[in-house]
Amino acid sequence: MSVKKLNVGLVGAGFMGKAHVVAYSNMPKLFWPAPFYPVFKTVCDIVPEIAEDAKERFGFEKCCTDYMDIINDPEIDIVSICTPNNVHAEVAIAALNAGKHVLCEKPISATTEEAKAMAEAAAKAAEKGVVSMCAYQYRRVPAIDEAKKIIESGAIGELTNVRTQYLQSWSADPSSPLSWRFEKKTAGSGTLGDIATHAMDIAQYLAGDITELVSIVKTYIKERPVQEGGVDLLGTVKLGPDAKKKPVDVDDEVSILCKYAGGAVGSVEATRMAWGRNNYITVEAHGTKGSITWKYERLNELEVCYGMDDKDGERGFKKIYTGPANPHGDVTWNIPGMNIGYGELKAIEIYEFGKAIVEGYQPTTNFQVGYQLDRVCDAILESAEKHAWVTVK
Prior knowledge:
A hairpin with a 4-residue loop joins strand 11 and strand 12. This protein is α/β, with parallel strands linked by helices. The chain folds into 2 domains: 5-137, NAD(P)-binding Rossmann-like Domain (Rossmann fold, 3-Layer(aba) Sandwich), CATH 3.40.50; 142-298 and 300-339, Dihydrodipicolinate Reductase, domain 2. The strands form 3 sheets. The chain has a 9-stranded mixed sheet. The protein has a 6-stranded parallel sheet with strand order 3-2-1-4-5-6, with helices on both faces. It is 32% helix and 24% strand. Helix 1 crosses helix 9, helix 4 (88-97) packs parallel to helix 5 (112-126) and helix 5 runs antiparallel to helix 10.
């Protein structure tokens, strides 16, 4: 079977760059016939040694240190953006204007003004058939998609409350170095943009856009030792007491109460300071007839309570092991319980991206969705400053 080949240019060869390469590689192996077959054309990183290493490691034909070499290459069809947040806008807009499809890591940008410009450029490019996508992969967990189906079927009634959490611990140690993720000029925000947006995206996917909120935003560690080199170490390396220190000007923890467009209320919590929590994402949705609960540490399991159908004394949660019968079940092998992980989630993301390109539509996590999440982040910061409820603009 002949499958269309699309040439890929990767900008940023660090942690997320590796995740994108693994996903592009695995997508045709898991989803066949695939919407397209990726060809690794050019990888770009501002550090020449990292670019050269990525070329050899990931199997790209070429490497460069200037992303415009990718933008100006007429052979490249797709640009994957895995840079720090403050570079997203300039690379994405240049790629869209050049007629290239764009997959951009989250949050969409470091500022709402840049996010707006990206959404506008994406809308203009869409008129010419160009597809853009923001990488909120956790909503593509088969169990989350199954939860969406159950909610839309009315099986748990009208949604009343949706609560999400995203808890990590990698920056809880004060000796964890100050990478770009702790500087507002490059990241835009801290925990808020880095992981809270994932929790909010899942919540909005299930309950509708957040319309009003009140928040608490906290920074606990005011300064950190300066990291040497440009690679984001994500807390895996500790620096000694004699290391030079710089101020931290972003948040460590975010908590909000909110109202959703669909009529439900709820809460979102996110922190990178929770000792014992590594990548702890949870969802709990309550309706007038039942409830749904899920957590990422057991991402292949969804628990549902059909409260109105159970007898008194026998009411509780039923566990569903996701597999071939659930959304994107093709990637969960052949038997429920054989399980998938982060790599398969990114492959699902690439599949959705490629399907949108080939079939000519914008994916569910398009740039407008990323821009809307940036507006929610603005409202969170405004609410924390005012100590008051705020309407999302």
